[in-house]
Specification:
Structural class: mainly alpha
Strand order of the largest sheet: 1-2-3
CATH class of the largest domain: Mainly Alpha
Number of strands: 3
CATH architecture of the largest domain: Up-down Bundle
Radius of gyration: 26 Å
Helix content: over 70%
Number of domains: 2
CATH topology of the largest domain: Alpha-lytic protease prodomain-like
Distance between the termini: 46 Å
CATH superfamily of the largest domain: Cation efflux protein transmembrane domain
Oligomer: single chain
Length: about 290
């Protein structure tokens, strides 16, 4: 697990250095040319520095060992970071929409050639960061940072197209139109991250796992008669957990430990469930419990 977090830290450090350097360059060019589009995009890139910093801090926190007050450790710090990053991305999308609508009603002169040139560099910068972050997308925190950088690259691509059109035709409203399309795509993907983060925090079943199939797989294990009180959730992104009761025959009681180990091995290899708590009950006990419930 620590090796994975080390890889994440390295990816985020790379993104932080490259993104911060480009943000400074873009601010300078925006001020020198008087381009509001470049200044606004540089401000957007500042939010990327913030989200990458949050992701980095969360990865460092998640590395801390479990203790008496945090018995499952700090893994969900990365989920909270994903929530915060997603909230920032929604705020950025709202800013883009408001700015685009205002510009449609009151167009501003834009230096299309300069915007296209600087935005092309932005594609290279943001694209490079996105590629590095994509190697760790299984982690929700890293995925939120990855999505942010992908849409920065798309924003830069849109700015290149808009800049070229403005430079060649003088039509300035296309800049706002591209901004609205990118904002819509950003909201769509950010909401997907938010839904997954909330699902984990509410201890919902991970979307890749089928409780019915897992229950059947446990029931099919030799000497397991039935399964009940099944709970499946994610402790953190990519680290799944399960608890359940299995019923066995009283004659197999001495083998109960071996039976549990077989079930746990099946859960690890077939369903990527790394943390399983399985309580063994005797068939007579479960039947008695059923009668009590009725």
């Amino acid at each position: 697990m620590s090796h994975s977090h080390d890889n994440n830290d390295g990816s985020i450090k790379f993104g932080l250095v490259l993104n911060t350097a480009f943000t400074i360059v873009e601010f300078v060019f925006g001020i020198l040319t008087g381009s509001l589009a470049l200044i606004a995009d540089a401000a957007h890139n500042l939010t990327d520095t913030f989200t990458l910093s949050v992701s980095f801090a969360a990865n460092r926190l998640a590395r801390r060992e479990a203790n008496d007050s945090k018995t499952f450790g700090y893994g969900r710090a990365t989920i909270l970071a994903a929530l915060l990053n997603a909230s920032v991305m929604l705020a950025v999308a709202a800013f883009i929409v408001i700015e685009a609508i205002q510009r449609l009603g009151n167009p501003h002169p834009v230096e299309g050639g300069v915007v296209a040139a600087v935005a092309f560099v932005g594609i290279l910068v943001n694209g490079s960061i996105a590629i590095v972050l994509s190697k760790n997308r299984k982690d929700l925190n890293m995925r939120s940072a990855f999505v942010d950088m992908v849409f920065d690259a798309l924003s830069s691509l849109g700015a290149v197209v808009a800049g070229l059109i403005i430079w060649l035709t003088g039509i300035t409203w296309v800049d706002s139109a591209v901004g609205l399309v990118i904002a819509a795509l950003l909201v769509y993907n950010t909401l997907k991250i938010l839904r997954e983060a909330v699902q984990i925090l509410l201890e919902g079943t991970p979307k890749e796992l089928d409780v019915t199939a897992i229950t059947q797989a446990i029931t099919d294990t030799d000497k397991v008669l039935s399964v009940d009180d099944m709970h499946v959730w994610a402790i953190r992104s990519g680290y799944n957990a399960l608890s359940c009761h299995i019923a066995i025959d009283e004659a197999d009681l001495k083998q109960s430990r071996d039976i549990v180990e077989v079930v746990k091995a099946k859960l690890r290899t077939s369903y990527d469930i790394q943390h399983a708590t399985i309580e063994v009950e005797l068939e007579d006990c479960t039947t008695h419990d059923e009668h009590e419930r009725h």
